[in-house]
Structures are given as C-alpha cells and as structure tokens.
Amino acid sequence: MDQIILQILNGLDKGSAYALIALGLTLIFGTLGVVNFAHGALFMMGSFVAVTVSKLLTLSHKVVDETRTDFLGNPLQVDVPYIYDWFGEAAGNVMIDWAVPISILFAIPIMIGIGFAMERGLIKHFYKRPHADQILVTFGLAIVLQEVIKYFYGANPIPTPAPEAFTGSFDFGVAFGFDPNAIIYPYWRLVYFFFSVVVIGAVFAFLQFTTFGMVVRAGMADRETVGLLGIDIDKRFTIMFGIAAAVAGLAGVMYTPILSPNYHMGMDFLVLSFVVVVVGGMGSLPGAVLAGFLLGVLESFASMPWVIDIAPGINQIIIYLVAIIILLTRPRGLMGRKGVMED
Amino acid sequence: MLGLEKKDFRLMLIVVVLTLLAPFILNPFPEGSELAQFNAGYPDLMQRFVIFGILAIGFNILFGLTGYLSFGHAAFLGVGSYAAVWMFKLLSMNIVPAILLSVVIAGLFSLVIGFVSLRRSGIYFSILTLAFAQMSYALAYSVLTPLTGGETGLQPKASDVRLFDGALEAGENATPSLFGLAMRDTYEMSVGSWVFTFNFGYYVAAVMMILAFYISIRIFRSPFGMMLRAIKSNQTRMSYTGLNSKPYTLAAFVISGMYAGLAGGLLVAMDPQAGAERMFWTASGEIVLMTILGGAGTLIGPVLGAGFIKYFENIVSKINKATLEQWFYWMPDGIEDVMIAIVYPFVGKGWHLTLGLLFMLVVIFLPGGLVQGGQKIAAIFRRKKSSDAKDGATTPAE
Amino acid sequence: MSKSNFSRRGVLKTGAIAGAGLALPQYLRADAHAGFTNAPGDSEVVLGFNVPQTGPYADEGLDELRAYELAVEHLNGGGDGGMMSTFSSKALDGTGILGREVKYVTGDTQTKSDAARASARSMIEKDGAIMITGGSSSGVAVAVQALCQEAGVIFMAGLTHSNDTTGKDKRANGFRHFFNSYMSGAALAPVLAANYGTDRKAYHLTADYNWGYTTEEAVRSSTEALGWETVNAVKTPLTQTDFSSYIAPVLNSGADVLVLNHYGGNMVNSLTNAVQFGLREAQANGKNFEIIVPLYSRLMAKGAGANVKGIFGSTNWHWSLQDEGSKAFVQSFGTKYGFPPSQAAHTTYVQTLLYADAVTRAGSFNPCAVVEALEDFEFDGLGNGKTLYRGADHQCFKDVLVVKGKENPENEFDLLEIVEVTPVEQVTYDPDHPQFQGGELGTCNPGA
C-alpha cells in the first residue's frame, strides 16, 4: 500500500512535467495549427534561464589568496561574487540560495519574448505549409538552439540546487499513520507538483474566464469564422505562442533542482511529450493534462521492482505500449476531436 | 526503354552514370591538398551514400506517394541488420543469404507493424510507428541483449558456427563477401596526384541502389502508384467509390519496409556490426529529414537528401582546429585568428549546428527540397539560353 | 582485386614516384609495397583520434582531445615533454615516432557505435590513420576495436570500463589502459567493508546495458564475498532521466546501502535523486544509510554538485596524485589549458605515449610488431605506478584508486579525495576468470 501511494506521488510528479510541456504543445497546435518540434528546446531554454541567473548571481571577481595554492602550485585565486560586495555576504548568500525561484521572475518575460520572436520570425511563415515542413523547420530550430546552449554551457549537466529550505524530504508515512520512512517525498518535488497544478489552473482559467480566452477558444474551434467576424486572431495567437513558451520555460526552471540541466534535455522530453499530446488527443487541452498525469503514474508503477520481475523490460516500453493500446481502442486519443491531424 | 518513358529513362541513365562514376566525381581534389578534406570518395562514405539512398527511396514510396509519415522506419533497418548478422554467424559470410533474410524479416516485421498502425491515419499513425520503433530500440538495447548484443552490438566472431563456410585460418577474420570476393576489396588508381578508390562493396551496393531506383520508378508510374497518390489526395473520396485503400497502403508500407531491410542488410554487409542506436527515434527522424530535404515525392530527391546529410555527418564533423589553421595559414596572423574564431563553432564538434541551420534554410526557402533548388537553378540557366523551357524539368517532380 | 587493402597513402607515395608528371593512369596495388595497412611515408605518420564531440559525453570527449593534442605536441618535441621524462622507457626522444612527424585527424563518435565505426573507417580509408584511439563508452570501444581488428590497425581504447572490452569482446589489435568493472569491485569491497562493516544489505540500481551488467556483477560478487547481502538489483532504462520511481522504494526495502551502477548523466541524475529522497540522512537497520558509485568521473561529479560529498567510488587516475608522472602531466596540461586533466584525458594521453613507445621499441609501425612490443610490457612513471600490459588479454594491470567525494573542496576541481590506492595484486585476476570468459583474443592482423 505504502509503495503504491509512493509511486502515485512519483507519477504525479513526473506527470506534471509531461503535462506542462504537453499543455504548451497543445496550445500551439490548437491555436496555430503548428506542430512545434522546438517545444522541448523551449523547456530546455527555461532551465538554462535558471542556470544563467544562478551564474549571474555568482558572477565573481578574483582575489589572490597568498596563503593557499591552486592545483599547479601557483597562489590560489579565490572567487568573490560581486553580489557580496553589493549586498553583503549574508544577503548575497540568500539570493544565491534562492536562485531558482528568483529565476521565475526572469523566465516569464524572457520566455514570452523568445516565444514572440519565434512566432513572428519563423512560425508565422509556416501556417500555410504542410505539417511536415513545420516539423522539419522547428526540428532544425531545436537543433540550433541546443547547439548554441552547448557552445556556451558545455555538454555536462550543471547542478542548480533548490533553496536550502526545500532540501530534504517530507515523511508522509507518519502523517498518515504508516511507519516512519515508509513514504518519504522530497519537498521540492511537492513544490513542483503544486506549482504545475497552479500553472495549469491559471492557463485554463485564462482561457475559460477572460474574453481574450474566449476568442482564442473560438479561434481554435473555427479559425476562419472568427477571422470573418473581424477579430484579429493572428495577434492573439502570437500572444498564445508566447504563453505556451512561458509555460514550457517555467516547467524547465522549476525542474532544474530535480534534474541538473544539460543541453539535450529538451530532446529527451520531446518525444515523450508528443506521445502524451497524441494519447490525450490532438488539440485537446484537458486531454493533454490527463494523458500527462496518466502516463506519469503508469510509468512509475511499471518501474516497481516486482513489476519488472514479472515482465522484464516493461519499464522501458510502458509509455509506448500504453500509447499503442489507447490509440487502437480510442481512435483519436483520450479526448481528441474528429478530423484533427488525421490527414 | 526498359518499360520506362523517355524522360524517366534519361533520369535513370543519369543516376546510373553518376553512381558508377562516383569514385571520380566524389574525389575532385588532389591528394595532399588542403581541399582534400572535402573529398568523399572513400569506400565507407560512398557505401553510405548509396545505402541510405536505398533507405530514402523506400521511405519515399510510402511517404511521397501515400502521405503516410512513418516515424519508426529505422526499426526496419535495425531488424534487417540484426537478421543479416545472424546469417553471417550461423550460415555463411556470403552476403546473399544475409541480404535475402534481412529483406524478408524486415518485410514480415513491417507487415505486422503496418497492419496495426495503418488502422489510424495522420499523426496518430506517426505516433504508432514511433511507439513500435522505440519499443524495438529499448528492448534491443536491454532485455534482448542475448539476441542483439545490446549496447555493444552484434558482430560476427571468429568462433561462430557458419555452417556453409570452412573454418577460418588462424589470424583470418570473418569478412563479408560475395562468392569469395570480399566487400572491402579495393582497387586504387592514381592519376597524377589524384587517387581514385574503387571498392567492390560500393559497387555491390550501387547496383542494388540502381535496381531499387528502377523499381521505384516503375512503382511511381504504375497503376498501383496512381492508386497510392489517390489515397494521398483524398482518402475519403476513394472509400466512397467503394475502394478499400488499406491493402494498397499496407503494400506500400511493406515495400518500403523491405527497402529499409535491404539497406540494413547492406549496411552490415559493408561493415559487419549492428547496434541498437540505428533504431532510435533520431535515426527514424533522419530518414524523414533526408526525404523531405531532398524533395518528398520526387524520384531523385530522397537520394540527394541522403547524400547531403551523410556528407555533413562524415566530412564536416572531421574538420578540427588544426585543419582550420592549415587553411588560413596564409592570412596575416590577426585575420587568421578571427577567421578561425568565426568558422570553428560551425565545424568539428559544431557540425550539428551547421546542419540545423541548413535544414532551416532549405525548408524556408526551398519548400520542395533540394530538387526544387536544382530546378530553380536550371530554370535560370534555361531562361538565359532560350525561352522555350516549358517541357520537362530536369527532374520529374511529381 | 585479390586481397583486401585499406591503404592509400602508401599507394600515393609510390604512385607519385613512379608516375611523376605522367598523365596516364597508374594502376598499382598497395599490398605489393606496404606489407601492412596504411604504412606511413618517410616524413609523417597519421593517428586517428575518435572521440565523442556531440552527445552526452561531449565534454569528456573534448578533454580527451586536449590530451591527444598535448601528447602529439610532446611526441613532436614541443612543450615540456610531460610524462615523457618520467616514463620508464626512454625510447621516445621528441622527434616524432621513428623520425616521422606525428599528424592527427579527429572524428566524432557521437557515443553511437555506428557513427563511431563510420568515423574510424573514414580515418583509416581516407586519411590513412595507422592507429585509432579514443571513445568514452564501452559500446563504442568494442565496436571500434572489432573494426580495427578487421582493418588491420591498432586500437588504443580510451575511457571504457566494461569487462567485455578485454573480456568476451577482446581483440588482438586492441589495447586497454583504463581499468574495468572487476577491478572497481575488487578495490572497493575491502574499503567498503572497513568503513561500513561486513554486515550490510545492498540494493543495486543498474543501467540496463552491458556496462551496467558487468559492473553490477563485479561489485556484487566482491561485496558478497566479504559478507554483504544483496537485497535487490533493479535495472533502469539508459534513457531514464528521472530516477525517483526507482529510488523511492529503496528506503523501505530493508537495504542499508544503495549501489548506483550508473555512469555519466545517469549517475548525476540518480545520485541527485537519491540525495533528494533523503537517503543520505536516513537510518536503516540501525545504521546510517550509504550510497556507493562504483565508477567516478570528476567531470560527472561536477554535474552532481554537492551530492557527491562523502560517497565512495573508484577511479582510474586523479590529478591530485603526487607521483612524478602525474605531477608532470598535470603541470603541462594545466599550463596549456588552465585546468587539471580528467581521468579520460589521462588514459588517452598515456595510451598515445604507450603506442608511440611500442612502435619505437619495435622499430616498425607494423601492427603485429606493435602488439608484440606491447604484450607483457612493464612500465612505470605514467601516473599509476608499476603497470603491466598483460599479453593474454591486452589489459593494463595497475593500482586502482578508491576515492570519495570531498567534504570541503578547496576549488572547483577539488571534488574527489583519494581514500586508498589499492595495490595491483588485489585487483589482478586470471585471464579466464568467469567474468571475462567467452572471448578469444585471436592473432594480430596487419591488414593489407
């Protein structure tokens, strides 16, 4: 029982990342009709915003310490962050410690900016082109983005820890009457789960309860008619692209303490999030979220030791297996609409 | 001739001449010169050009004609490779049984996957094929290690059974051959300071590609090909006329799977090692890129796309800082450093970056792929020469 | 077209002499002149450095490349000579190899065996490389080693740790200086027993591929021999990035030690996850819960940040070693690049020197002569103390370092501290040890 609760927690956590990326993908696909293979790269860019912020906060000047020596036997040059000079050491340390949450403030405008630039500069010209062209050009863009990141940050993962206050883990077991240590879960992962629920809720509320959202939803359903009504749907769609980019970016920022970012993490997530989107049903936002959590939980269950003992290798293929079964039993995924992306 | 229209026959002839003379064409720079870096006329790369050409031609029969975008084609290549290596291990180092079996196994495999996946269309079909391929990759890499060699891959060993071959002499390696002629037999010709390499394996693969190309032309021009195009343009209308399109698409899927199997078999015939990475989704993606980059639906496009990508992967990735220093040594010091600093991020370890940029440029400016680029250039020339350039583009774009 | 041949440079040389100025085609065959693949000319010799430049191990690959460039510089008489002055064999004199200037070509393995073989083939067929070296994973090493055997050139493996490279997939033309899974297990087990006691229950998480299997087997058998019990061993997909669902059940499984048979990105992520799940602070069976990483790499330890503190593992070499060879190498590498070399850089630098030295002692580039010179060659002064290149399986036998993540690093490179230098006797095994069975070395292949 405790194991099952633990794996559900794990699955929800994993699912939140899938759901956030899939949500952005579906927003772009649903509004603009564009299959964005660069979406994984946006997720990756988000986490590198966090990396950059924490690098900037620790930007240092060198002070030579004559008492110590470096690996070659020369006097050691100690790095002193500028932030110490400006705010004093204590306040500086707090800011460095909270680099990841601070990055959220930067990530939102930066990612929206990147989203705008992508849509206006590139994607706009591909609305009328076949999906294959969209896939190819965004895939090319994804490669370029990740190579640029690699050029500046190298190929190895860069540790970007969560604030001190969130390290360690919470013992659920005790709270619910199990043995101590039975259900332990890291604080930051709980934060991530709640964060993603909030973001998903915000996106849905935005679409549901604002006029802007209503127009966008109308545009998703029937773009031409909305255009005929004299509404400048293109501009709104650009904004939606920016929002989708920001959602992916935030997912990336918050993910950095869980997974040290590296330049190819976007590609690692890309295929899975496509599977999630399709299983959810192309163009369906609730479908994307539902499929994200569902696949996350199933993946966690499949990696339990006794499951692997019964069916070796199941943990490797579970997501694809589930995708196949769902697509064969439900032709358009869990909540897909007829006629979308079927030709 | 050969059951081809005049235009197709001309194209066929061009392809035959180009493939047969490839050792000359691909080695335009004299040995030892700075530009020799760009020579592609060595056996490994020439073989890859034609083998991936076969793969792309086959993929094009499915994607170019029916519009069904398979995102798991690399699985058939991988299965074909494994089948061929097992033939090497069990029967003989002669490539004939290996290649036959690789085509058959890939055909069967694609029959099963196609039968299931073709129940859906559009992106749902793509994801189904992707899912099957990723499962094949994951299992081949881990659980199926006894069958596939896992991470280290499957290779023939001196100690294998090989029913039809005699025992190897001490120190002799198991090398794939065609009735005694080893695939790696190479014959070199030097003219002045040029060296041209003629490799037996290349010519085996080249003949296969010419055959594959010929069959593909025949399919494109056949009633069957017409039927496939009809499926692409409007499947609903087809079904209203009372035609069941599925047997046709399934046939196209299996044919293109067999092409992939043939490519897989040839790959291990040239280099007897099969690794699971060749089934990873990026490998499938590469096939899609090759086809679209060259020009999907055109006859010659996929082959060009395959050559383009393989050239990049093998030539540009090998340029290092020392090479750059050689190129720019004649410049004044300051400018030399600047030039190296500008070029360096795009070559060697940065070859992915260049490839990504080129993809984007091609897709943005040449929606029809490289073939369209060729047509545009040809059109410019023709306009200069005369005005009656209407009949027949250089390549029969669909 | 009778016999296989890979050479072109040899042809070129003879062709140039015989056919100078002639426009008529010259039909020649290399094997009549060379005797072995890619016989170098009189003025220069080409080595092929095949390292991952893209993909997850790109940083290690680039560090290997730096070491190669340094080695070439030293061989050609440039720089301060590095370990050439501390090397016990004094055959190398800074005039290249056998009087020929050393040139090199580079390629990208992408950490894929197919791409690595394509790249190595192009070096052999196009650039006339006489020796291929490099790589940062065992799959690539095994694949390229087999290729070099077929082509008839020498392969000097880079970073490859799986038993198979010199076990069931060993080849006569291939040599490995790096240590292996068995040695890691044999070196670690006594240290673990001394620090954590002999009554421990271990839980293994193992990367689901060949290297993972051999490492798990090695660590299991050596720890079990000292009284440990293995509670469970779970295989994790190589492509996994989040290991939470594998880590979560560990604490409640009755185990009190977690062994992470992971490398590279896998190791960084699984270790980070394990620390997040509080395993470091946890108590189990009345003992402190412990984590072990059998194969450490400093570059990867950097990715895991503070999580590595106090965690035991093994490594082939570390820059803080104080013997003359290591000091000389760190000095010349550090001076040139500004940071200390990684173990990948060390092993590739040493492999290049060893190859050059073997050629010089043999007096020939012929692969069979090189194999003979390297087999059962004993040397010293290359950073690992007295070392033997065993003839039976072409594996180097030398001391193994047991290290631990440093609690208070003094600078960003100071991540690991050496706990013990395990003497070579303790990690030596029979060539037909069960973990290494099933392979055949064969005989050397000179190619053409």
TrEMBL record, chain A:
Among the Pfam families in the record, one is BPD_transp_2
- Protein's membrane topology: Multi-pass membrane protein
Q: Which UniProt keywords apply?
A: Amino-acid transport, Cell membrane, Membrane, Transmembrane, Transmembrane helix, Transport
Per the record, the GO terms for biological process are:
amino acid transport
Broad class of where this protein is predominantly found? membrane
| Top-level lineage group | Bacteria
Q: Annotated Gene Ontology MF terms?
A: transmembrane transporter activity
Where does the UniProt annotation locate this protein?
Answer: Cell membrane
Report the CDD domains cross-referenced here: TM_PBP1_LivH_like
Residues crossing the lipid bilayer are 16-35, 98-123, 190-216, 237-258, 270-294, 306-328
User: What cellular component terms from Gene Ontology apply here?
Assistant: plasma membrane
Protein family (similarity comment): Belongs to the binding-protein-dependent transport system permease family. LivHM subfamily.
Q: What is this protein called?
A: Amino acid/amide ABC transporter membrane protein 1 (HAAT family)
Which organism is this entry from?
Yoonia sediminilitoris
TrEMBL record, chain B:
Its localization reads: Cell membrane
Q: Write out the transmembrane intervals.
A: 9-26, 46-63, 94-116, 123-144, 200-220, 247-267, 287-306, 327-347, 353-374
The annotated topology with respect to the bilayer is: Multi-pass membrane protein
Native source organism of the sequence: Yoonia sediminilitoris
Q: Which UniProt keywords apply?
A: Cell membrane, Membrane, Transmembrane, Transmembrane helix
Q: What is the protein name stated in its UniProt record?
A: Amino acid/amide ABC transporter membrane protein 2 (HAAT family)
The lineage, from the top, is: Bacteria, Pseudomonadati, Pseudomonadota, Alphaproteobacteria, Rhodobacterales
Report the superkingdom from the record.
Bacteria
Q: Name one GO cellular component term.
A: plasma membrane
Where the protein is mainly located, per its record? Answer: membrane
Q: Which GO terms describe its molecular function?
A: branched-chain amino acid transmembrane transporter activity
TrEMBL record, chain C:
Q: Domain Leucine-binding protein, which positions? A: 45-406
Sorted alphabetically, the Gene Ontology BP terms of this entry are: amino acid transport
**Which SUPFAM superfamilies does the entry mention?**
Periplasmic binding protein-like I
Alphabetical list of InterPro entries matching this protein: BCAA_transport, Leu-bd, Peripla_BP_I, TAT_signal
Looking at the record's lineage, which domain of life comes first?
Answer: Bacteria
Mind listing the UniProt keywords for this protein, alphabetically? Answer: Amino-acid transport, Signal, Transport
Q: Where are the transmembrane segments?
A: none
UniProt lists the family membership as follows: Belongs to the leucine-binding protein family.
Please identify the protein, giving its name as recorded: Amino acid/amide ABC transporter substrate-binding protein (HAAT family)
Task: Name the lineage.
Answer: Bacteria, Pseudomonadati, Pseudomonadota, Alphaproteobacteria, Rhodobacterales
